[in-house]
């Protein structure tokens, strides 16, 4: 007598953790936020917060142009096919991350110089902004406010073709304006 085999219970596919994928929201990542070190996160988080707040998915990675060049090349060259539309790169010291990223991708690169060295970010600012003609990096201010503005700028770039991001950006501005008191006391 044929014995009916018990149908193997299919385990539901496990969702990869945010820690593994670097995805900072449930949304499909459109912006890659790269930083040279884990120690850059307290500043770079500002870019991710802004984008998350506007419903823009980010892929957040620690990738160093100096310490992990292979990881860098692999990620950046595969990013466009993975749906990434632009990069935000934050690094301190001799900050090559944004420039080297721009060298190997046609996607726009927004650079954030970070104040992690004894020179308080002046070194990173010059390294990021002084790209030789031909490979541009849009460079922002030093540190956390620069990261925040890079996030806002990225949102503005996406807003041109995405009405939901445009709406979120308008709401952000409106709220910001409403939060400014008329008097300081
Ligand atoms: C840079 O060196 C990183 O972007 C970071 O700002 C700085 C220091 O890195 P850690 O020594 O803290 O890892 O490449």
Summarize the structure.
The chain is α/β, with parallel strands linked by helices and 185 residues long. The chain is built from seven helices and five strands. 5-O-phosphono-beta-D-ribofuranose binds at residues 35-37, 39-40, 64, 91-93, 114, 116.
Q: How does the SSE layout of this entry go?
A:
Elements: H1 18-21, E1 29-35, H2 41-53, E2 57-62, H3 69-79, E3 86-91, H4 97-104, E4 109-113, H5 122-129, E5 138-139, H6 144-159, H7 163-178
Helix pairs in contact: 2-6, 6-7
This protein binds 5-O-phosphono-beta-D-ribofuranose.
In what order do the strands lie side by side in the largest sheet?
A: 2-1-3-4-5
The end-to-end distance, rounded to whole angstroms, is: 89 Å
Q: Summarize the helix and strand pattern as letters.
A: HEHEHEHEHEHH
Which distinct ligands sit in these coordinates? Answer: 5-O-phosphono-beta-D-ribofuranose
Please bin the fraction of helical residues: 40-55%
**Shape type:** globular
Indicate the structural class: alpha/beta
CA radius of gyration is 20 Å
Low-confidence stretches: none
Strand percentage:
5-15%
Determine the mean pLDDT. Answer: 92
**Contiguous helical run count:** 7
Strand tally: 5
* Main β sheet profile: 5 strands, parallel
């Amino acid at each position: 007598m044929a014995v009916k085999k018990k149908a193997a219970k299919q385990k539901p596919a496990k969702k990869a953790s945010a820690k593994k994928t670097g995805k900072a929201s449930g949304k499909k990542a459109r912006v890659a936020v790269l930083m040279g070190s884990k120690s850059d996160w307290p500043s770079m988080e500002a870019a991710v917060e802004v984008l998350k707040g506007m419903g823009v998915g980010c892929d957040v990675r620690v990738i160093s142009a100096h310490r992990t060049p292979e990881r860098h090349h692999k990620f950046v060259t595969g990013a466009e096919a993975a749906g990434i539309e632009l990069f935000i790169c934050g690094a301190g010291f001799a900050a090559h991350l944004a420039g080297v990223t721009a060298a190997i991708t046609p996607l726009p690169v927004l650079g954030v110089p970070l104040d992690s060295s004894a020179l308080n970010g002046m070194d990173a600012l010059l390294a990021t902004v002084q790209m030789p003609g031909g490979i541009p990096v849009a460079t922002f201010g030093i540190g956390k406010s620069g990261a925040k503005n890079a996030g806002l700028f990225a949102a503005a770039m996406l807003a041109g073709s995405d009405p939901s991001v445009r709406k979120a950006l308008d709401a952000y501005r409106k709220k910001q304006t409403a939060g400014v008191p008329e008097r300081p006391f």
